[in-house]
Design a protein that fits this description.
It is built from four helices and eight strands. By secondary structure, it is α/β, with parallel strands linked by helices. The chain has one domain: Rossmann fold (3-Layer(aba) Sandwich). The strands form two sheets. A six-stranded parallel β-sheet has the order 5-2-1-6-7-8. Strands 3-4 form a two-stranded antiparallel sheet. The longest helix is centred in the last third of the chain and has 14 residues. The chain binds pyrazine-2-carboxylic acid and zinc ion.
């Protein structure tokens, strides 16, 4: 059985948002269109407390995009984004969520970031997504959304480690740094990930 995971279609990652992904809005019609091809559709939502340590604003003398070591893990410092309950954390109004069965939130722990839909960046806590999918007999995962070089990438690696077959729907993905995504794509293809465009879904 096939599941689609739609990643972080939230205002802060879209045009005018705090951490806008270039061309991000163009994934919305794609993720709307493809949902009907899957047995199960889930969405993720980046959902940070205002005091989250991934925010540069919570570190004196640090700037956005600086890298620090946070509790032993390299951390890029982001602009404040997807703060719980804020408009920026909301799903975009044009994102059709009719077929979305569950929403998996991530990034709630102040001391650790969480790019993946499955685990935090230290692999300490699970979101529960993997047992949820297994409980529904899912063995193939398709991923689309934002950002390709962070949440999509980390979710894909975790999905592989969990034993799922993974396909990335490339026209449904945009990245913070497209050059970075091309490097990631090579790595993921070597690890067995399938890359397709939405028109190849039958
Ligand atoms: C993400 C940066 C910061 C993502 C989340 O979901 O791709 N990126 N927080
Ligand atoms: Zn975040």
């Amino acid at each position: 059985m096939k599941a689609l995971i739609i990643v972080d279609i939230q205002y802060d990652f879209l045009e005018g948002g705090a951490l806008a992904v270039p061309d991000g809005n163009n994934v919305i019609p794609v993720v709307n269109k493809i949902q009907y091809h899957f047995d199960l559709v889930v969405a993720t939502q980046d959902w940070h407390p205002a005091k989250h340590k991934s925010f540069a604003s919570n570190h004196q003398g640090k700037n956005v995009f600086d890298k620090i070591i946070l509790n032993g893990i390299e951390q890029i410092l982001w602009p404040d984004h997807c703060v719980q309950g804020s408009n920026g954390a909301d799903f975009h109004k044009d994102f059709n969520m009719k077929r979305v069965e569950s929403i998996f939130r991530k990034g709630m722990e102040t001391e650790i970031d969480s790019y993946s839909a499955f685990y935090d960046n230290g692999h300490i806590k699970s979101t529960g997504l993997s047992p949820y999918l297994r409980g529904k007999n899912i063995d193939e995962i398709y991923i689309a959304g934002l950002a390709g070089d962070f949440c999509v990438y980390y979710s894909t690696k975790d999905a592989l480690n969990e034993g799922f077959k993974v396909t990335i729907i490339e026209d449904g993905v945009r990245s913070i740094d497209q050059k970075n995504f091309l490097v990631i794509k090579k790595e993921l293809i070597e690890r067995g990930v399938n890359f397709i465009t939405s028109s190849q879904l039958e």
